[in-house]
Amino acid sequence: MATNSDSRDLFLTRGKNLALSLVLLIGCYSAVLIPAYFPTDQVATLGNDFQHPKDLVLLNRSATLLSGPCQPHWCLNHLKSLSCSAGLVDLPVFVQQDRPVTWDLSPPLGLQGSEEPLARALASLPEQNLPPSLRRDGSCRRCMVVGNGGVLHGSHLGSHIDQYDIIIRLNNAPVTGFERDAGSRTTIRLVYPEGAPLSAEEYKNTSMVALVVFKSLDLDWLTSVITKTASGKALIT
């Protein structure tokens, strides 16, 4: 049977209990706040160095491509070698108001049946011509298509990507905050309504935003975005 003195030995005094609680509380706060405000050298090293050897190999490969001469008609020649290339070369890349086209298929393969929404969308555009960076001037230009799958993370390819003449991104492929790996500028951002970036930051330093039409309602969406009017039941601002 334990005596009163034995039971008191099992518990801390009030003063010691308070001191221990303060130590534990300070320790918990330190564990949370110190890494946030004072990053360790290991974190800094991961941010500045390559995380994987393949990233360095990719960077060297990219540098080799950039140091070589631009190859005129490289893409066109490879397109012509495809078995399904008949007629593809003659298709217009962009739909323009001053270049009417007869469509034999409905969206997404064509615009048959969407002529009226198309006319409204084209009429609402603030500019009808292509930006200077996309106009044909006979010079050889390098093109880069940047995906949004995250494979560029840690690649340090941003400065290489920015050296290309035409940089194409799809939907909400991020740029802001990822300039070191993904580059800082965009020539063409291809979007459809469901995948368009919501942040205005992603549209900065962009030459042109192009709509990829999958359905007729996409054209109404474009008109509503430009004119800031209601499209169906939704108001696009």
UniProtKB/TrEMBL annotation:
Cross-referenced Pfam families: Glyco_transf_29 (PF00777)
Membrane disposition: Single-pass type II membrane protein
UniProt KW keywords: Glycoprotein, Glycosyltransferase, Golgi apparatus, Membrane, Signal-anchor, Transferase, Transmembrane, Transmembrane helix
GO molecular function: lactosylceramide alpha-2,3-sialyltransferase activity
Entry's localization field: Golgi apparatus membrane
GO cellular component terms listed in the entry, alphabetical order: Golgi membrane
Principal cellular location given in the protein's record: Golgi
Gene3D superfamilies attached to this UniProt entry: Glycosyl transferase family 29
Keyword Hydrolase: no
Keyword Transferase assigned: yes
Transmembrane regions: 18-38
Record-stated family: Belongs to the glycosyltransferase 29 family.
Protein name according to UniProt: Uncharacterized protein
Organism: Pleuronectes platessa
